Amino acid sequence: MTDCASDFSHILSVSAEARAARLSGMRYADAIDIVNRLDFDDAILVFIHLPSDFAIELFDKPELQRAARIIEALPAERAIAILNGMSADEATDVFQEMDEHTRQRLFAQLQPVTRAELKKLTSYPEHSAGSLMTTEFIIIPSNWAVRCTLDHIREVERTRETVYTAYIVDSVSSRLLSAISLRRLILAKPDDNILNAAQHAKPITITALTDREEVARLFRRYDLLSVPVIDGTNHVIGIVTVDDVLDAMTEEMSEDTHKFGGMGAIDKSYMQIGFFEMLKKRGGWLCLLFLGEMFTASAMQFFEHALEKAIVLTLFIPLIMSSGGNSGSQATSLIIRALALREIRIDNWRQVIMRELPTGFALGAILGTVGSSRVILWQCMGIYDYGEYWFLVALTIFCTLVAIVTFGSLVGSMLPFVLKAMHFDPASASAPFVATFVDITGIIIYFSIAAVVLSGTLL
């Protein structure tokens, strides 16, 4: 097992040339971990001295941090060599993160093929299959034999994203006909026609504008390693591989997690985020939620006279508010996940209501029983005196918890549907947002029920 701490300490103690030599003998993942920990200037020196092939492989890994900044700081000749050697999709990601001046300067010096690929891939929307695809794939004419196909794969494998699947096209029109796995190629007879060896299997295809969540669903459903991207005339313009989908979904999940936690999406690792950027990402949401909570104070002010008459009701405000917020957050989490996995669609909202209403009622009854039992036990055991009308106080707590947990479940489950219908990301229905909204309405529900139950006694 590699001792990363020991490797890092040793690398810091040697020259840039020695560091590069030591890194080039490591696995790519281990080398990237060390490069990510180096100071920026030290990382630049390492990439200047690394063997070109090894440097390109490191830049082809999405785990490499500061990739665009490093490319910008490298000598132009070195930067151009790396960009020309990178896989098209990874080069596009790095290229888009550069500042405009450097991007224009380097673009003019790239190889024509690289320029064409970058121009093509940067034209697609960010969350589309086109932004994930690579143009480095294996195309086989339908009149080739298996032997010729295997020879071709041996020749081009170093310049292709994957060799596990080859795509068979019409030898005249170049339209996609079929796909064949490397396993089937190996098992087929050398003189068999490639199309016959593939058994005319029709491949699953996507377009460049297919949403990447739909792409991920197809990979998951059909256990794919890659999928061809076709244009309107059934010509293959690229492929999306499973590693690119995993990277994209990791990024998507990170964004959703940040949003669900009530903050702006962060596209850097935690330790790389600057102080002011952290404030920007978190401060806006916190201020918005704080303003929302001000309505809670306004709601309590409206019931000021009720609070003066029945101070005992204030003891249960945190209990009531947290229960409603928690039930809403639970429902929101379940629905967002179900929508993301296509387990439910936007037109299933009625079925969701019919599930959440009895579920929320039952959960509220459970919490209500626990809450009211606490009042009764404390009163009977002499731990706390809730006054002459303690049983009505317990009944108020029970009814309120049933109402607010049911309401919280309903609001939490419906909010993602509303956002999706408005073409917003359902993940924006963050747990803090749902909790804040239910807090405001919870106060109104609480004191409204108290006004009914305690009318003529405490109120």
Regions with little confidence, pLDDT below 50 for 5+ residues: none
Please list the strands of the largest sheet in the order they lie side by side: 1-2-3
Overall geometric form: elongated
The span between the termini is 71 Å
Order of helices and strands: HHHHHHHHHHEHEEHHEHEEHHHHHHH
Instruction: Please compute the radius of gyration using only Cα atoms.
Output: 30 Å
Average predicted confidence as pLDDT: 84
Quickly count the helices.
21
- Overall structural class, as computed from helix and strand content, comes to mainly alpha
Biggest sheet: strands, sense, closure?
A: 3 strands, mixed
* Beta-strand content bin: 5-15%
Helix amount, in percent? 55-70%
In total, how many beta strands?
A: 6
Descriptive account of the structure:
This protein is mainly alpha-helical and about 450 residues long. Helix content is about 65%, strand content about 5%. It has a three-stranded mixed β-sheet with strand order 1-2-3. α14 links the parallel β4 and β5. The longest helix has about 30 residues. The chain is elongated and about 95 Å long.
What labels describe this entry?
single chain, 459 residues, mainly alpha, 3-stranded mixed sheet
Q: What's the layout of helices and strands?
A:
Elements (H helix, E strand, L loop, with lengths): L3 H9 L3 H9 L3 H10 L2 H10 L2 H8 L7 H7 L2 H10 L2 H10 L2 H8 L4 H10 L17 E3 L4 H11 L8 E5 L6 E6 H6 L6 H4 L8 E2 L4 H11 L3 E5 L5 E6 H19 L14 H28 L1 H6 L7 H24 L8 H32 L9 H32 L9 H23 L6
Parallel strand pairs: 1-2, 4-5
Antiparallel strand pairs: 2-3, 5-6
Helix pairs in contact: 2-4, 5-7, 6-8, 8-10, 14-15, 16-21, 18-20, 18-21, 19-20, 20-21
